[in-house]
Amino acid sequence: MSDHQHIVHPIPPFFKDDSKILILGSFPSVKTRESGFFYGHPQNRFWKVMAAVFKDDVPATVPEKHAFLSRHQIALWDVIHSCDIIGSSDASIRNVTVNDLSVVLDQAPVGKIFVNGKAAEKLYKKYTEPLMQRPAICLPSTSPANAAWTLEKLTEAWKAVRE
Q: Domain containing 128 — which CATH number?
């Protein structure tokens, strides 16, 4: 008996026709799946880091997050479409199917693809990069599990999305 659940990604990609940056996570956490939008866990530092990088207010609601991403020409999605997972544990992920990034890349002028953390990088390199023939730049995870990275260190590293 396994504690793995088979879950299909419940959140569509967020992008606009002018999105220049694509940021990919691995797969949404339980809290994010409950919130209905990316990085919905209150302890995840993604929105604080992005606000600091772009010198903007931290968006709190989903409409504010949409507006923030639109303003800064950012697309968000995850590498994985569906998988077997225990809770929110990236380490437990198996039986993976990936999202088809051409949905975004064929419609938006994405210049750079970033992955949020080592788990997303590993999955991207294994499954997505061979299909898309586009490298991704790995940034340190904004997850609360990545406690070694302070908000300040994360913000400094994530400034790469602005360049």
A: 3.40.470.10
